[in-house]
Design brief:
Elements (H helix, E strand, L loop, with lengths): L1 E5 L3 H19 L15 H9 L3 E7 L2 E12 L2 E9 L8 H15 L4 E7 L3 H9 L3 E6 L8 E7 L1
Parallel strand pairs: 4-5
Antiparallel strand pairs: 1-2, 2-3, 3-4, 5-7, 6-7
Helix pairs in contact: 1-2
Length: 158
């Protein structure tokens, strides 16, 4: 059985993020020293702090195992960040990411959100194209001095 459930366990979320984002870290040669805040390298204290600051997380559950996750938090003026989208590598290309995005967009709409914003590694052209297929468009590029990449910011009107 498959479903999407709210997940408040920061260790479960951290484990998924660490495993799922490690493939990206390896692809772009990110290390813990170069990018300590990249999701492949964060610890559960970061997620716990995110929860305290209003992050709501959901997991994609297959037969009792969380294999993917996504969350949202309020930004400003009816705009919400969609963050921490991840699917374990062995479950990729099954439509889970798209289902998580549709679910989280609907959650944001239900609470009055009008715009969803995501941040993508600017070098990750495959992921940028994937978001474009979900009707996200480039809003801006944020320079991040503490990381070895910039943030390609994309928005979608909900």
């Amino acid at each position: 059985m498959e479903n999407i459930i709210e997940v408040n366990d920061c260790i479960i979320i951290t484990n998924i993020l660490n495993k799922a984002f490690m493939t990206v870290a390896l692809q772009f040669n990110f290390t813990k020293e170069k990018a300590p805040k990249f999701p492949a390298f964060i610890n559960s204290d970061v997620i716990e702090n995110n929860f305290k600051n209003g992050l709501k997380m959901y997991g994609y559950n297959i037969n009792g195992q969380i294999v993917g996750c996504v969350g949202y938090s309020y930004y400003k003026d009816q705009t919400y960040f969609i963050e921490r989208l991840a699917t374990l590598s062995e479950y990729r290309h099954l439509g889970i990411g798209k289902k998580l995005m549709e679910f989280i967009e609907n959650e944001i709409i239900e609470i009055g959100g009008k715009i969803a914003e995501i941040h993508v590694v600017d070098k990750n052209e495959i992921l940028i194209e994937w978001y474009k297929k979900l009707n996200y468009y480039e809003a801006r590029i944020d320079e991040i001095k503490t990381l070895p990449f910039n943030s390609y910011v994309m928005n979608k009107k909900l």
